[in-house]
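# nightly structure sweep
# worker-07 picked up a monomer target from the shared queue
# config: single-sequence mode, recycle default, output format = structure tokens
# input follows
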Amino acid sequence: MTTLANIVCIACISGGLFFFLAGTAGLLRFPDALSRLHALAKADNLGLGLVAIGLMFRANTLLVAMKLILIWLLVLVSGSLTAQLIAARVRRVRK
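# output follows
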């Protein structure tokens, strides 16, 4: 593996870690459930995407890289569905 690929791998994973930490800070800092949910959904999706891209540079085969993309897409779909269900529940409780 080349030095450039290592640098891109480390940069992507570090960026993903930054977004995970920013989402956690939003979870702890924001006042209500909907703003916390928004912070987590956005930051975690971007963070996982960057980590998956960074790990694709370390993958040995194309199959492993495609599995990483599939995992990211499944988490995107399940995260958005879960966020919608939680938001709907919060709105019902508020009324």
